[in-house]
């Protein structure tokens, strides 16, 4: 069933309770409004349920994997149970490993450090820098931006067919773009990778908070995501998947927890036996609250039901898209076209406006938090804008005159905790700013637009 069909047959559910839903912020023009957090793609607010679970556990907090005391035992159980919960959430294979990391960036760097010798890596230029950059020490091929999902598969197949060796290869691909929100054809790319003997890692940083991710169904070899984008902002992330490359690699960090036995040699050196399990790459004291909060978020999303969460999000996407379609000055950025299935992440430019100026006015005059810039995906934004994004421009004057190309973009993103009112206020604000201009004056400070007073 396609994403849009799910939306049309499901009753739209209420938003999930998140922290910060009642926070008010001052407006430069006077008064206060409830803050509209529309930057979920950067960091989503914590689910109330996650916060409550963490608060309930906090008095029982103790060291993991090392103490003999009751609270240490309890915390160790909690940490290992969290691993099982997230493994189930991702529908991993029985022999997969799940490693708790700091973030998606950390997970992908860990995998990059675990690549076998002479591994070739294939990555589309459209990736977030976290997926684009960790492979610099391998033989990496950057693939041109495709313009359809089918073209993505063709481009990958062509690149893999032209491989100069039959050694190990890895494809890294995102599930949903952090710029356009568009879904990538992960299952088809995985099939293509496997048919050429390559493996594939899925960057699910923007997919997992919006859609169920099944490692088995998608047939990906690894998946990575971050807790703070999945309503669990306590500094943990996940890398899950095939154990063989991870077991064969040197520990990501050397230290306690990763080592099973350490002995002095007669020549004065030290011999180390490293663990083969996930502990091999989890040296040091693990972030038990981070892991527990991710598990709590996984349970909350599963219990809420992804069908109704997706339906609600599609309903919000429709509202934003319909609203923006009524403003001819707005151009929504897209790689795969208007009909491509997407998550609640949309980037756009406004003719004649500096994006930083526009975002600053949304915040200062309407209490709406969006993001402006290049979203850590410079090559993709450059392709979408058709301009060189290095210069940010001055905010006092529009950086792009009518008809000229913008240098950066504005991104609005939302999810399970977003009420209709936030996206309605956003659409109204865009219309008013375009029609009437900003009510306040702004200046540039450290490269960002801020209210002049
Ligand atoms: C698609 C994608 N991948 C990776 C990352 C990196 O995530 P983190 O900053 O949590 O490591 C992001 C963050 O925005 C992202 O959007």
Automatic annotation (TrEMBL):
Q: Where is the signal peptide?
A: none
One of its Pfam families is: Aminotran_5
Q: Answer whether the UniProt record assigns the keyword Transport to this protein.
A: no
Instruction: Give the SUPFAM superfamilies listed for this entry.
Output: PLP-dependent transferases (SSF53383)
Tell me the cofactors it needs: pyridoxal 5'-phosphate
Q: State the Gene3D superfamilies in the record.
A: Aspartate Aminotransferase, domain 1, Type I PLP-dependent aspartate aminotransferase-like (Major domain)
> Which keywords does this chain's UniProt record carry?
Pyridoxal phosphate
Residue span, Aminotransferase class V domain: 38-426
This chain belongs to which protein, by name?
Cysteine desulfurase
């Amino acid at each position: 069933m396609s994403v849009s069909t799910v939306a049309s047959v499901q009753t739209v559910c209420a938003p999930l309770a998140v922290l910060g839903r009642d926070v008010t912020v001052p407006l430069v023009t006077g008064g206060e409004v409830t803050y509209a957090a529309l930057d979920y793609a950067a960091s989503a607010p914590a689910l109330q349920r996650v916060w409550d679970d963490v608060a309930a556990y906090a008095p029982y907090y103790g060291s993991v994997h090392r103490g003999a005391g009751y609270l240490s035992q309890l915390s160790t159980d909690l940490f290992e149970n969290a691993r099982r919960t997230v493994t189930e959430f991702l529908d991993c294979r029985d022999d997969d490993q799940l490693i708790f990391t700091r973030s998606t960036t950390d997970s992908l760097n860990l995998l990059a450090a675990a690549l076998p010798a002479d591994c070739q890596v294939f990555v589309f230029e459209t990736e977030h820098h976290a997926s684009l950059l960790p492979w610099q020490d391998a033989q990496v091929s950057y693939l041109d931006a495709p313009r359809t999902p089918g073209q993505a598969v063709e481009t990958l197949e062509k690149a893999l067919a032209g491989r100069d060796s039959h050694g190990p290869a890895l494809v890294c691909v995102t599930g949903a773009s952090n710029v356009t929100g568009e879904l990538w054809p992960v299952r088809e790319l995985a099939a293509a990778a496997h048919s050429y003997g390559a493996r594939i890692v899925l960057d699910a940083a923007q997919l997992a908070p919006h859609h169920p991710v099944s490692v088995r169904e998608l047939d990906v070899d690894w998946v990575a995501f971050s807790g703070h984008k999945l309503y669990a902002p306590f500094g943990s992330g996940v890398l899950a998947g095939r154990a063989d490359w991870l077991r064969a690699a040197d520990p990501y960090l050397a230290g306690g927890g990763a080592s099973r036995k350490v002995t002095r040699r007669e020549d004065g050196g030290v011999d180390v036996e490293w663990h083969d399990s996930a502990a091999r790459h989890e040296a040091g004291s693990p972030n038990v609250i981070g892991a527990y909060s991710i598990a709590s978020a996984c349970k909350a999303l599963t219990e809420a039901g992804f069908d109704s969460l997706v339906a609600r999000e599609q309903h919000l996407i429709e509202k934003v898209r319909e609203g923006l379609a009524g403003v001819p000055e707005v151009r929504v950025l897209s790689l795969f076209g208007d009909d491509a299935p997407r998550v609640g992440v949309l980037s756009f430019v406004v003719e004649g406006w500096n994006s930083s100026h526009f975002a600053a006015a949304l915040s200062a005059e309407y209490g709406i938090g969006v993001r402006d810039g290049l979203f850590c995906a410079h090559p993709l934004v450059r392709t979408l804008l058709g301009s060189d994004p290095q210069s940010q421009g001055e905010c006092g004057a529009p950086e792009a005159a009518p008809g000229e190309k913008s240098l950066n973009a504005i991104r609005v993103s939302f999810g399970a905790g977003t009420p209709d009112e936030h996206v309605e206020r956003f659409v109204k604000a865009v219309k008013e700013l375009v029609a009437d201009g900003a009510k306040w004056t702004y200046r540039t400070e450290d490269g960002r637009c801020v209210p002049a007073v």
